[in-house]
Design goal:
68% helix; 371 residues
């Protein structure tokens, strides 16, 4: 825990130093530090050994087509990635996934968050457990979530082809990402859809799922085998994330209130960030009815890295400046720093959870095997 905490805090400091113009390439150094250190991890997290076993099983087949056919229980995209890494070993799978996930988050934060607040986006990404540390173990989930995150913004930029390709790649890596396809379609059709209309759709779907919770389980039963779905998601629910579910729900609802209250005055971009993040508390609330929905949150939490760091810039997120500006400014600051503080709290609380303490407390590298 101490080593991981030190590396992450140092990475945040480097990003902060660039924001304050203390050093020129702080964000790049921060990115490089995280990628290099965590690409070398070995045996870190609950699922690491499982992925390693999958890798050696996949590469044991004489051809890629045979591997895909024989391991139909694993998503084809993940099989392809592992098979292509056969000459370089499993550690290269770790390095590729780490690089891709970090590159997506860092590049989007740099692109969409105005200085000097990029360090806040990096802090949320690195310190909220479900965005980074937990996904050091849940490799497919972390990669699929990052690919959807990038796909959404390619769609917002009217780059529909890479947007569709990216979300299909996400589905090929983790089938649960199929839930992301409607959101990618909607963002690519934003010229024809008002953000308020999307809010109404999200609310309607939420109410429908609340009334008919087992429809979601039936949907995922068709996507994956029922045994696989039940085992995976029940296990995830029993682990429960890094904080009490009621506290997690409360925190999400409280910090997003300013964006909801002033929704109509926000810039279009920030309206979409608000909509996507608001789905996160919905998934938590619905998870009390259907266990499958809790894991869907991994696709909507990433939007918090941009939403709350942008809120710190205050007037830059508004198309129409609110009349009571002297009141709005501190509210936006409190909401943003509130989520940042909650991320830090969740980070340190994560390592005290009995479920994770054994597998995440001690950090080992691939070089540990040589000693």
């Amino acid at each position: 825990m101490l080593f991981v905490s030190f590396v992450i805090i140092l990475a945040i400091i480097l990003a902060y130093a660039e924001d304050k113009r203390v050093i020129k390439k702080g964000l790049t150094l921060s990115f490089g530090l995280i990628v290099v250190v965590f690409s070398l991890r070995y045996g870190y997290g609950n699922d690491f050994k499982t992925y390693e076993e999958w890798f050696f099983n996949i590469i044991s087949y004489p051809s890629l087509s045979t591997a895909i056919h024989e391991r139909s229980d694993i998503e084809p995209g993940w099989v392809v990635l592992n098979y292509l890494c056969k000459p370089l070993g499993f550690q290269f799978v770790i390095a590729i996934t780490t690089f891709c996930v970090c590159y997506i988050y860092y590049s989007l934060v740099k692109k969409y968050v105005p200085r000097p607040y990029t360090w806040v986006g990096i802090l949320i990404f690195l310190m909220y457990p479900n965005l980074f540390v937990l996904n050091l173990s849940m490799l497919r989930q972390g990669l699929a979530g990052a690919l959807f995150f990038l796909s959404f913004f390619k769609g917002y930029e009217n780059k529909w082809f890479p947007s569709i390709i990216l979300v299909l790649l996400a589905v090929s890596v983790h089938q649960i990402a199929i839930i992301c396809i409607p959101f990618v379609v909607m963002i690519n059709l934003k010229k024809f859809l008002n953000p308020v209309f999307l809010v109404l759709i999200v609310i309607a779907v939420f109410v429908f799922c609340l009334v008919n919770p087992y429809i979601i389980e039936e949907l995922f039963g068709n996507i994956m085998s029922i045994d696989y779905a039940y085992e995976s998601y029940s296990n995830y629910m029993s682990k429960g994330g890094a904080e009490d579910i009621r506290l997690a729900l409360f925190a999400r609802l409280v910090v997003v209130i300013p964006s909801i209250v002033y929704f109509r005055k926000l810039k279009e971009f920030d309206k979409y960030l608000t909509i996507m993040f608001c789905i996160s508390p919905f998934t938590i609330l619905l998870s009390t009815q259907s266990v499958l929905l809790l894991r869907l949150e991994c696709f909507f939490l990433p939007f918090s890295t941009l939403l709350f760091s942008r809120l710190l810039s205050k007037e830059k997120v508004f198309d129409i400046r609110p009349a009571n500006w002297s009141l709005v400014k501190p509210i936006m600051i409190v909401a943003s720093l509130g989520w940042a503080f909650f991320s830090v709290r969740s980070f340190f609380n994560f390592f005290s959870e009995p479920t994770y303490a054994k597998h995440f407390a001690n950090f080992h590298t691939v070089f540990s095997n040589l000693i």
